[in-house]
Amino acid sequence: YPLCALSPTTLVTVNCTVAYMSQCMSWNKCKASCTSMGASSYRWFHDGCCECVGNQCINYGINQSRCEDCPLLEDDEEITDEEMEMLVNMEYDDFTNDDTAKKAKDKL
After folding, report:
1. What are the tens digits of pLDDT across the range 51-101?
2. Which of 17, 59, 70, 99 lies at 20 to 30 Å from 3 by C-alpha?
3. How far is CA 35 from CA 5, 6, 65, 67, 71, in A?
4. For position 94, what pLDDT does the model report?
5. For residue 1, what are the CA distances in angstroms to 9, 82, 95?
6. Pairing relation of β-strands 41-44 and 50-53?
């Protein structure tokens, strides 16, 4: 999104580039993923969404979770940050059949 900065003599417009990961991930994986893609900073949301932020952005990019496959939970479900961390760190194979997914959720 474009940002404008005013100085006494000029108006400067810069582009702020942000990238959202489509899948939910842990805070550590978000940090590693954004670092590996060359982002200057990142923002991890409590629903597991990860936003990588470019160097032209002010205030860590956009303060809104916009990941396609997040949140992992229904809107009315609430869990702690620790429980969310456990969910986003589970392997995809843990959710390949309904019984396994239910058992994993019951552990929380």
Report:
1. 999 998 888 888 889 998 887 655 556 667 677 666 666 654 454 445 544
2. 70
3. 27, 30, 19, 18, 23
4. 52
5. 23, 33, 36
6. antiparallel
The crossing angle, in degrees rounded to 10, of helices 27-36 and 81-89 is: 60
Lowest mean pLDDT among 1-10, 54-63, 98-107: 98-107
Angle CA 42–71–90, to nearest 5? 85
Three-state DSSP class for residue 41: strand
Cβ atoms within 10 Å, residue 69: 11
Counting Cβ atoms within 10 Å, is residue 13 exposed (0-12), middle (13-18) or buried (19+)? Answer: exposed
Q: Name the 3-class secondary structure at 62.
A: coil
Give yes or no for a cis peptide into 71 (omega within 30° of 0).
yes
In 3-state terms, what secondary structure has residue 5? Answer: strand
What span, in angstroms and rounded, lies between the C-alpha atoms of 45 and 50? 6
